[in-house]
Amino acid sequence: MNSIFADAQKRLVDVFKYTELTDDVEETFKHPKLSLCVSLPVRMDDGRLKIFTGYRVQFNDTRGPTKGGIRYHPDVSLDEITSLSFWMTIKCAVMNLPFGGAKGGICVNPKDLSRLELERLSRSYIRGIADIIGPKRDILAPDVYTNATIMGWMADEYTQIKRQQLPGVITGKPVHLNGSLGREYATGRGALHVLQQWLDRKKLQPQNLTVAVQGFGNAGYHFARLAHRVGFNIVGIADSKGAIYSKKGLEPQKVMQHKQEHHDLGTMLYCDGSVCDLQHYQKISSQELLELDVDILVVAALENQIDKDNAGNIMAQIVLEIANGPVTSEADAILEKNGVVVLPDVLANAGGVTVSYFEWVQNRAGYYWVEEKVNARLEKCITREARAIFDLADEKRISLRTAAYLQGVNRIAGAITQQGTREYFLNK
Ligand code: NAD
Q1: Ligand 1: centre distance to CA 220 (Å)
Q2: Pocket of ligand 1 (CB under 6 A)
Q3: Interatomic CA distance for residues 225 and 217, integer angstroms
Q4: Cys bridge to 138: 66, 134, 337, 351, which one at CB 3.0-4.6 A?
Q5: Which residue intervals of 36-184 are DSSP H helices?
Q6: How many angstroms does the Cα of residue 13 sit away from the middle of ligand 1?
Q7: In this structure, are residues 255 and 239 in contact, taking their beta carbons and an 8 Å threshold?
Q8: Which CATH architecture has domain 32-177?
Q9: Cβ atoms of residues 377 and 193 within 8 Å
Q10: Which residues are CB-contacts of 372 (< 8 A; sequence separation ≥ 6)?
Q11: Which residues contact 200 (CB under 8 A, 6 or more apart)?
């Protein structure tokens, strides 16, 4: 299998052509600062002891404490978590947040665990990594198949270990446990702002545009809900079990309501239902959804969904990357040749980490903002960075991805260079 991290690094080759960087910077980008692999013992409900494997990778902390989510998925590997920590480093710099990048994960299918097993596993993970995290060192957050409830258990475990209330160690917590208003839907909301900025430039109206959404979890659902509200026609929705299509359009909130009626009895934290349970819509596969004849394709599930094999079949004119790394570097080249515009992940899904930053600020200040303030600040930050990236892409005639990376890499490079370069140490 190809390395996700090796593919992620290929993006830098293009970026380095457009900026003058010292060898120090290029060398730094090749290596994560710290990679930890931990064995996580969990007492299962039937009395057995089961050991799970967990990871935490801190990629770079030159610009501040590292920041990144925790993923629960059977395919989690060190390679995947390293790539995600690299993307977090770029993303935080793209948004000019005072953070470096990190990521964590546990190799598990959380839907196979009971609620109590899941809580023990989450607490075991914090015990395993407690020495390398902290509000001023490395800050956690939700990602695929983790949510506010799990963040609450983790924050509580950290409090017990440190014997201090340190809510800033983790963001995306429940609002009643020092979470921020607006964090739950921030990723979807931020993606919608980025899309709208792009459409405004092209003088396109939502009412005339059809959208297909792959991934109907935290990020994809809230995007679809908010996009439907401002007039986009959501014609296709996919989750891990399949997809539904309706030319006339779907109502995301009703689809979610129906999906949730099929709760998994074990944990009640995951939904056992699927969008496919909605009988009166046409059923298609998640792969077919990607190739629908729509104006906008939103990829909000996992990495590597569009690769060299299906990139040529993408009919959408715009791909909005809400997932991290959904398009491989080979697919990027094919999409570009076919005139498909990709709104890149390091910008399009940055609403989540931006409001996580706001949560961290509120936790440290001990002063909490009203929802309108959170939303207004998110809109201001993400539209400012989006406009700068769109302008840079126009000016240098480069893809939006290369422009976004350029913006992030230049900021990180500035910080690395300020710490001293070869020229500096050789007194040149
Ligand atoms: P989630 O667990 O809430 O939802 C994941 C969704 O993807 C589920 O609906 C699941 O059914 C679906 N899915 C999984 N495999 C699929 C497949 N093969 N085809 C179609 N659907 C599939 O996770 P999330 O938090 O929404 O994260 C989704 C993506 O967004 C990830 O790449 C994550 O890294 C990224 N992201 C999330 C956030 C956040 O704040 N949650 C922030 C930035 C980026």
Answers
A1: 7
A2: 142-145, 187, 214-220, 238-240, 286, 300-302, 322-324, 349, 352
A3: 11
A4: 66
A5: 78-94, 115-129, 148-162
A6: 28
A7: no
A8: 3-Layer(aba) Sandwich (3.40)
A9: no
A10: none
A11: none
Tell me which of 67, 91, 103, 173 is the catalytic residue.
Answer: 103
Instruction: From residue 121, give the alpha-carbon distance in Å to each of 10, 106, 117, 150, 179.
Output: 35, 9, 6, 10, 22
pTM: 0.94
Nearest alpha carbon to residue 383 among 415, 420, 351, 345: 351
In tens, the pLDDT along 379-403 reads 999 999 999 999 999 999 999 999 9
Report the distance separating Cα 222 and Cα 237, nearest Å.
12
**Rounded (5°) CA angle 26-306-206:** 105
Contacts of 42 (CB under 8 A, 6+ apart): 49, 50, 51, 52, 117, 120, 121, 124
Q: Classify 213 as helix, strand or coil.
A: strand
Report which residue type is found at 304. N
Fold of the domain spanning 186-348: Rossmann fold (3.40.50)
Checking if the pLDDT of 331 tops 50, the result is: yes
Give φ, ψ of 174 to 5 degrees. Answer: -60, 145
Query: Dihedral sign, CA of 225, 190, 89, 63?
Result: negative
Q: Where are the domains of the chain?
A: 1-31+403-428, 32-177, 186-348
**Do the domains 32-177 and 186-348 sit in the same CATH topology, yes or no?**
yes
**pLDDT at position 55:** 98
Residue with tokens 């899941």: 118
